[in-house]
Design a protein that fits this description.
InterPro entries: Cell_div_FtsQ/DivIB_C, FtsQ, FtsQ_C_sf, POTRA, POTRA_FtsQ_type. By secondary structure, this protein is α/β, with parallel strands linked by helices. The protein folds into two domains: 54-118, Ubiquitin-like (UB roll) (Roll), CATH 3.10.20.310; 121-254, Rossmann fold (3-Layer(aba) Sandwich). Helix content is 33%, strand content 24%. The chain is built from seven helices and twelve strands. It has helices at 8-12, 19-48, 66-73, 86-94, 159-173, 212-223, 249-254, and strands at residues 54-58, 99-107, 111-118, 121-125, 129-132, 137-138, 151-153, 180-185, 191-195, 200-204, 230-234, 242-245. The strands form two sheets. The protein has a nine-stranded mixed beta sheet with strand order 6-5-4-7-8-9-10-11-12, covered by helices on one side. A three-stranded mixed beta sheet has the order 1-3-2, covered by helices on one side. Strand 10, helix 6 and strand 11 form a beta-alpha-beta unit. The longest helix has 30 residues, at 19-48. The chain is elongated. The N and C termini lie far apart (107 Å).
Length: 255
């Protein structure tokens, strides 16, 4: 078989072809094009009118309840394939406590695919409410998440600021006697942290990171093995710190 290569000259040489032949070829080409378009339209039209045959969920679940997710989405799929409201599907999935976001799309002929991104818990916020890694609050809906999460608190709207400060401060103090278990900022702007050993660190209204060098330097050297008896360390001083001591066990019993 000989391959034909169409050059620009061969393509443009139409001068010797009668006008009637050219019009005939144009009409045939146009008819073929419309026939192809009609076939494609008919395929999508008639298959689109069919009911949804399959719901496909794409996710890596650890805490999302798949039965709860299915129950939330199924009623929205009781219609023809093309009439499924994808925005409503996304909203229904995103309303579940452990879903960070969702994306829904059609896959012909009759499948609705929903991609789920699960929340990653980062901290407890002012009690039993949780913060995810993006500092968004959500209610775990009774699901146990353990006690390993740090406990954070702050004024309304301060979630991202407190979580960011905790992340930065914790990175500086991990592996030291002052590894953090929690951080809060009160309505006046005062920062207070709690260590894993129950020591309260009072930073005041200044950036808590500015007190780290004092804490890991002079405070650690001065307190040494007495850290087990320390109740709080006040770092609100310009050139030093003060210490509050735990009450002796014997004295506590006598009271």
């Amino acid at each position: 078989m000989t391959a034909m290569v169409m050059t620009a000259d061969a393509y443009d040489r139409d001068d010797d072809v009668p006008m009637s032949s050219r019009l005939s070829r144009f009409a045939l080409g146009t008819a073929a094009l419309f026939a192809a378009i009609a076939s494609v339209w008919a395929f999508f039209h008639f298959t689109g009118l069919e009911p949804v045959a399959r719901l496909q969920i794409q996710a890596r679940f650890e805490r999302v309840d798949t039965a709860e997710l299915d129950a939330a989405l199924r009623p929205l799929l009781q219609t023809s394939f093309v009439e499924v409201d994808l925005q409503a599907v996304q909203r229904a999935a995103g309303a579940l406590p452990w879903v960070a976001r969702a994306r829904a799309e059609r896959e012909w002929p009759a499948t609705v695919r929903v991609r789920i991104w699960e929340r990653v818990p980062a901290a407890r916020w002012s009690g039993d409410v949780l913060l995810d890694e993006n500092a968004a609050r959500f209610d775990p809906a009774g699901r146990e998440v353990g006690d390993a999460l740090p406990r954070l608190a702050g004024p309304e709207g301060s979630e991202r600021r407190v979580l960011t400060m905790y992340t930065q401060l914790s990175a500086r103090l991990d592996g030291t006697p002052f590894a953090l278990a929690g951080l809060q900022q009160d309505a006046r702007g005062d920062w207070t942290a709690t260590t894993a050993d129950g020591i309260e660190l009072r930073f005041g209204r200044t950036d808590p990171l500015l007190g780290v060098d004092v804490l890991l330097g002079p405070a650690t050297r001065a307190l040494g093995p007495q850290l087990a008896d320390v109740r709080h360390i006040d770092l609100r001083y310009t050139n030093g710190f003060s210490v509050g001591w735990r009450e002796p066990a014997a004295a506590t019993k006598r009271n």
